[in-house]
Every structure is written in C-alpha cells, then in structure tokens.
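User: I've been going back and forth on whether these two constructs are worth ordering. Before I decide, could you fold them both?

Assistant: Sure. I'll take them in the order you sent them. The first construct and its structure tokens:
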Amino acid sequence: MAKEKCGVGDLLIGVDLGTGGVRSMAVDVSGEVVASSTVSLEGATVVDEGGIHEQSPLFWWEATCRGVRELMGKLASGGIPKDNLKGLAVDGTSGTVVFLDRIGEPLRPGIMYNDARSGEEADGLNDLAAGFCEKLGYRFAASFALAKIDWVRRNESESFEKTVCCLHQGDFIEGRLCGEFGLSDYSNALKTGYDLVEEEWPDWIGNLPGVRERLPRVVAPGMQIGQVCGVAAEQTWLPEGLPVVAGATDGTAACVASGVRRPGDYNTTLGTTLVFKGISEKLGRHPKGLIYSHKLPGGLWLPGAASNTGGEWIEAEFPGADLGKMDAAARERFPSACVAYPLARRGERFPFLAEEAEGFCIPELWDDIERYAAYLQGTALVERMAYEVIDKVAGTSGGEVYRPGGGSRSDVWMQCRADVTGRTVHRP
C-alpha cells in the first residue's frame, strides 16, 4: 500500500537498475518515500562465467514496466492522483552498454559493468588517448563502456555494422519511456570517453573506425530529455506526457542521495567492496590513474574509487558466524594491537594498485574474536588511507562521511571506522 499521508503534493519517480533487481520509488519534494516497489532481474542474465557477464536489455525493460505498474497501483490505492507526478529519472550500473538498431531494438545482449573481456581494448585506449587520460586523471579499464564497444567493433563486426547507437543501461530505459533513442548524460558517458572538462566527445575517438557516429548526444544529469510516450504509458501505467529527465550512474545517484552536501564530504559504501565518492571543487587527477571524477551540474566534482577490500572477508573468514555476538565481543578488543589487511582475494586496486596483493594478519591469530576485531579495524585503516589519497588529489580535507551499505548496519564497526578515520559519520 502507498503510505497514507494527508496533503501529498508533487511527486517524483526514480527508477534504479541494479544487477539483480529494478527498484522504483515515488518521493515527495522533501525526499520522503511515498511508495516503492522492487522487481527481481532473475532470468535476465544470458551468461555469467569466464569473465563474461551479459544480460537481456528487454528483460530490463519488462522488469521496469512491472515495477512501475506496481508502484502506480500503490499510489492509486492510496488515493494519490497521477496529476501529482511531475517527473521521472533513471539510474543504472556504470559501464553497462547496449547496442541498438535503427528502431531501438537490441542487437545483442547488454555487456555488463563487470564484464572483463575487453582488457586488451582498454590497454589500447590508454595508449591511444594518453594525453586525454592525463587530462582527466584516469585510465581506461575493461569495465569502461568504450572498451566494450571497441571489443564488439573488433570481434563482432556484423552486430557492430548494424548498430546505430551504443547506449548505457539507464539510457536504454529512458529511450523506451520516451519512444526515441540517442541521448545520454555525462555521468554515464564518462566511461565512454566523454570529455567532462570540454563537455564534448574528444577528437581521438575518431581513430576508432565507426565508433564516434554511434555515440549518443550527451546532456547534463537532471535536464529534461523527453516525456513518456503513449506506448510506454500503456505498458507502465505512467501518465502520457510525464517529463523524463536525464539520470546518472547508480554510484553518482547513491552519492547524491546519501546526504553529501559540501566539498570534503564523502559517500562511502561498505558492501562486498569499499566504494568512495567525495565532493570537490576541482577535478581530481591521480598520477597513476587510480581515481576518476564524475561531474555534477553546477561545476562540482565527485572524485572516487573502489577498493577490493570491504566486507567480503566476513564470509571468507567467519562463515555462518553470529555477527551480532561477534560485534558485542569485539567491542572490548579495540584498539587491536594486530595489523590486518582484510583482502579476501588476490589483488588490490585502491588506495594503491597491486595486482598480486594478498590479505594478512600479523601476528596470526587463533582467537576468533581478536582476529575479527583486527579485521574490522583493518578495514577502517584502509578507509583512512583512501581518504588521504583522495583528499590529496582533490584538494579537500576533514569533511563528513555518509555511509550506506551493509557494513554500516554494525554500530561497532561504524564507531571503529569513525575513531580510526577521525571523521564525523552519518548513517543515511
């Protein structure tokens, strides 16, 4: 049921496309959630093995329609008229790309953000665009959309020749809603090589035959790009003519939603990995390209990165443990005299790059509670290192931290992280 609330005014709809589900929300202008829905993307995956991860874009659309219909049903049952809706935006996973024909139909499955097949293409882009990479302060990786596009160009020429437009996940859904394709926002377009400083596609992309003419026109997040067309209105129950505005990547949207509001503030999400985004008045350029900066309308930047360290060690080191009891027992063990780097698998990407890095605990501990406390503290130390690295390149210091993510549900871990980093923290 929609939340019963007297005097509900203007409402906005947000649609979030994740790896495993589509979430839809109707919120009022203060950000209070009035109704929401979640639809699983189980069945969307075409292949997920050997570094290849593909999903069906049509499944994304079908799940979006189901979720928005459920949302609209909740609003209707709460007596909230469609006239209260004033706009809609979509966010999606960063770097996921889809290849469309002249009528907007996918020519192949969407290549997901964590698909790793295009490492060779990423290396080639870094050589081709060395000056650009230095200017923007990052290096291309296999996760970037442009590397995936170049892989299809080189390995699936038939599909590439039929492609009229290469779009990101959220762009595709917005196109279906509006009934026309060919637009993106500069949050998503970062990983396609868009020049965020000049706000244009750089000339060097012309050295990739056929790519430039298949890239979309780019606008700022939040700009109206169209309105819900008749066909989409029938499929979603949204009002025809509802304004659709350009969205952003899921990480950018989550950062803004977390509550960050001034330079030096951070949004840090602790889940399987540890993901950082901060606010800065300038573009952050890391000498080794470990940080990339999204841009916000108005001129602020979001320098950020992701560590392979995070909460993955919990299941690896303490499978089936009662974490509530472990937290309570670990509270008395801080500060731990042990030094732990809680990396669950080989390789680290931030706050330093080391492909052969492995986790450790010195000295080795057989006391589970002491070891658990050392790992909690070790994660907090990695977080402190990350802030120091980003602050240095972004010219910020001492801001507050807004921490969503599963790891933030632990009061003990939150306090440990606050103590170690010396930052005021908020749990959105």
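The second construct, handled the same way:
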Amino acid sequence: MQGLVLAGGEGSRLRPLTLSVPKHLIPLAGRAMIEYPIGHLVEAGVVDVGVVVGYLGHLLREYLGDGSRLGARLRYVEQRERLGIAHAIHLAIEAGAVDGPFVVYLGDNILAGGVAKYVEKFREEEPDVYILLSKVKDPSRFGVAVLRDGRVVKLVEKPKEPVSDMAVVGVYMFRDPDLVEKAFRSLKPSWRGEYEVTDLIQWFIDNGHRVAYDVVDGWWKDVGTPESLLEALYLLLDSVGGRVEGEVSGEVVGRVVVERGAVVEGRVYGPAYLGRGVYVGRGAVVEQYASLEAGVRALSGAVSRSLVMDEAVLDLGRLRLVDSVVGRRSVVKCGRELHGEIRLAVSDFSRVEL
C-alpha cells in the first residue's frame, strides 16, 4: 500500500496568509498542516508516500525532507500547472511514485482519528475505488455522492442544485493504477479548467467497477479559508491533553500544552497550545482555543480563538485579539488606551500599530 499527499495548490482563498508560504505549511498546534495527513498515513502502515508539490514547492521539500522525521519515505512529484486532483494523481502514476494499490489524502484535509481503519477495510475488501463521505450543511462547496440502495450511483462536483448532502472527503483509495490511467485518458477539463477527481471516479461507476464507500464517524475539515483554518484549530485543540514541559510561574488552568522552552508569567486558560520558546508576559492572557506557535511573544492584552504563528509579537495593551490569524514574525502593537476586541488576518512579516 502506497500513499499520495497532494499539496500543489496556491491557497488563494487563504490570502494574504499564503503569499509567502504554502497553506500546507501553516502550523496548527505545533505541526504543519501537511504533517497531519502524512502522520495519519504512517499510522495506517503506509510509509511510502508521494507528495505532489507546485506553488512554493521548494519550501515543502525543505521542511519535510526525506520524511524520516515523520516515519515516512517521501518522494516528490511536481505539478507545474494546477490542473486538478485527477491530473495530480495522473502525474504521480506517470512518475512512478505509485505503482500498486494506493491512498490519496489531500494535504489540506484533516480527519479526526486518521484513516487507519478505512485503509484496513480497503485492504480487506479490495474494491476498485473506496471513498469516504461526510454529511455537510452546504453541499454546493463540495463534490457530493448520490447514493441509492447502498451504492454510489453518481458524483457531482459543487452542485448548484441540492442533489445530496453527502460530501466526498479528501481521501480516495484506488486498487489499480493502470485503471486510473485509463480513466484519466477519458477525461476532459471541467468548467474550472481542471480534471476533477469526481469525474475520474464517475468513470469507474459508469464502467461497472466496484466503488465502495464509508461515512466518517468523526469530524472532517477541508481547510480552504481563514474561517475553516480556525475551525480546524478548534477541533484539534478539543482533543489535546494537558502537558506542561516549559516554565510556569503564572497561572495555567485547564487543558494546556506548554512545550519545552516556553515561559508563562501571565495566565493561560485551556484548551490552548503554547509552542517551544513562547513567552507569555505578566500582562498577557491566553484564553481558550488559542494556539501560539514557536517563539511567539505575548507581552500584554488577551488572545482568544486565534492562531498566532512562529515568532510573532503581540503587545495589545487592553485589547483582546479574537478569531484572528497572525502570520510569522509579525508585530501587533497597541500604543494607546484602547479597549474592546479586534479581528485580524495578517500575513507574514507584517506590522500593525493601533
């Protein structure tokens, strides 16, 4: 069993956060986003993993290396043009990154509990294609599956009219790469100019091949916007256990992770995450569902329900930063007597003075 993680997209809906970093390297509670799918594959016993890169791909290569740090053996495939998921899968097969049964995991998707049990079911039942589904409130944002008598009869990409509320999760498993290539050769670009994975799988349905499915029993998050990025963070923090390895002279209440080298002189209320080298000053409060990544300095004010990336500085005075994303090495500073809440989406190396 081999794996394929797709990480070639530009993350345009996450701008300005993705102007200087691919979205797959945005940190969430101490791990880059792409580490979650790779880690889930390794947990499922899938250690030979191809990574399809494109936009700022050199940064992904530098960060992940050969994958040994994550327990994987990584091989990179470049997608020069963003022509869709099916095209990325085709490139990986063409490059020899997969040559037997394989599982595709989108690099900006995260599933609660991983994929081990689904990979095991695929191994046991050996369908031609195996997909995962999740019930959603807004099917128009996803590819959806139409089910009839326990079978997948049709897949529709981002339907304008409601045909199903069962979204196709960003995990797909295929038994035979040669069949996938045969299916790909029959495809034409969609109205978006992309080769859609829903069309690829529809070929298997139309040609009488066995397409099996399962409904995921935990949460699933497709991270494409600042809002969904924060939602993924909240879900991840919901599952953390308290762990204090840094220095605490202030107050830590609830499930809080304080990594080695972090210093807490102020107050922290969990669930929250403080990365290596984080400093929380006496005048600062870190509230629920906040993640301060490595090297962040919170000098004053409060931060809640927010992601603050590596080495950013918060000097907020009496302000509360809420529902926000602050990029790496950015500075947010308040030099006046202001009260209340602020919401920001700030890219790397920015400076905000109030």
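Notes on the second construct follow. The CA atoms of residues 298 and 322 lie 14 Å apart. The first helix runs from residue 35 to 43.
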